[in-house]
Predict the 3D structure of the following.
Amino acid sequence: MKTQIENLRRELEQHNYNYYVLSQPTISDFEFDDKLKQLQGLEAAHPEFFDPNSPTQRVGSDIVSGFEQVAHVYPMLSLGNTYSEGEVQDFYERTRKGLNEEFELVCELKYDGTSISLTYEKGLLVRAVTRGDGEKGDDVTANVKTIRSIPLRLQGNFPDKFEIRGEILMPWAVFDELNREREAQEEQLFANPRNAASGTLKLQNSTVVASRKLDGYFYYLLGENLPSDLHSENLAAARSWGFKISDATKVCQSLEEVSAFINYWDLERKNLPVATDGIVIKVNSLSQQKNLGFTAKSPRWAIAYKFQAEKAVTRLNSVSYQVGRTGAITPVANLDPVQLSGTVVKRASLHNADIIESLDLYIGDMVFVEKGGEIIPKITAVDKDARFLIGDKVKFLKVCPECGAALVRFDGEAAHYCPNENTCPPQIKGKMEHFVSRKAMNIDGLGSETINLLYQNGLLQNIADIYSLKIPDLVRLERLGTKSAYNIQAGAEKSKEVPFERVVFALGIRFVGETIAKKLSYAFKNIEALECATLEDLVAVDEIGERIAQSVVQYFSDSLNVETVSRLKSAGLQMSLSEEKLLSHGDALIGLSVVISGTFAKHSRDEYKAMIEMNGGKNVGSVSAKTSFILAGENMGPEKLKKAENLGVKIIDEDTFLSMISETKSEE
Ligand code: IVH
């Protein structure tokens, strides 16, 4: 039986490889699924032959577990970036002088995903770790195992132990479909495939990861017994072991060849199924790489040439204006659909009145659109030569497109606002959407369409109405089923446990984001104190400036807001800091900046981060002369350790840290 199971596993591995790496399947999906089911059946009947690397393990598991932090054996560094071929030439000259002998370069595509380091022992995938801070990352093995193009078991002649690094990517087609689904579900969209890939890899539930169809391209081998001294040959060997290695890899003998590679792929990359953002140029020989060595941040033997952001030209058909929950007006350009960086663009942000003015836009203009990091591209220029039948000049609105109120513009701010905070429909609905959102009250069942429906029918006029919704009123609405009605009520009920700091955030006070809401909650401890706080009281709180203070005072000077808060209080929402948080909140670290490094036994890094903040300290990422101390666990990064020693920064272990913060607590 064992042989039968093993044979079936080998057979399925080969089909996986043919399909996901070579893109040349030799059997139908149906046959594949059938064989997989057969294997699942056999494995279930014979648990004694369990294998964590079996093809059946790729479906994921819904066991939720936090990620363990793992120190990288070799730190994961980044590359120096250049945007001009001149700088590539400088790199070439530096390398030539540094080596003072013949050398070859390898050009590769720079894949725009999230980096991963895989460790293989005896041909089996044993660990997959994210880049993290470069010194240690999250162990995401369970998630990576669901990626079909990543071999769980290697073929051929491979070293006993090695690491391979590459990029996890979400193909454009998968990304578009995922965002379409998210839009339908009223979930927040991913800005780009990179964020989607890294977000997916960090999901706790690997069954969901499995459904997201990620892919992996590999470009860097590390280990003691690599097959060759040439990077290009190592990549070719890795390809033969089963890894997906890009075909767009070229050994170049001269700068001219590098230049030709750049120019070719600058255009051709648009036809690739995944995102790329540049070219990576590496010295081919590993011994020459060793000679050149590293700077503090990146290797001297490689450089990244980044492509210019992609541009497209299309026609401006109209401009519409959206009113946000704070009343901010966002102008949006409606365009003839055009292909840009793998997606079809129909709309672009015009940001504000100043930008519209400086672009000197007319309806019908041919405009250049560019994608930055955001999902909505921006208009960067107008092709004035292409202007013939001129339409109307685009002028910013004077009145709110929704309620007709005259727009206002605050000193020093770029945006125009509709001042009708409590009566302008999108502002009312926007406030409700914010109130129920995940990071605020997290009320399930109330998406923007449902809010709209309830608003139109007069059931929701104010956030406090959510707590007096009645089932019979809800079910009477045509488009809402009984189940949804009960869902909404249960969600509202559950939200009464949401802690005070999130309630403060949920109120939607302008400029009071999640962090500021936390600061205000810890400083004033309950809603009554916050309500009575004066400008002076507010600016006395660390990081609360004049602008936020004024906004808070203004919020509570509006009688409608006071009434809303009082209704929320009567409904049973948390209006003061919990006992536990009151106790754990001290001032032991006021004015101190603390760096966290290493792995800890008693609390997670996030918990330590929260403790630092709750005690008045600041958590910073890198060690400098200003660092007050380092909270260090096991395996502190060697770079940080060296820097700390050089600068004479104190290093404190977790027990010392815990007693530091508990001492001041008992003094309180
Ligand atoms: S080599 C020592 N090759 O770009 C650095 N990196 O800024 C070894 N990347 O962290 C990296 N494609 O996430 C290398 N062909 C490629 C790459 C590549 C994408 C990413 C990778 C790296 C970052 C460097």
Notes: The chain has 25 helices and 20 strands.
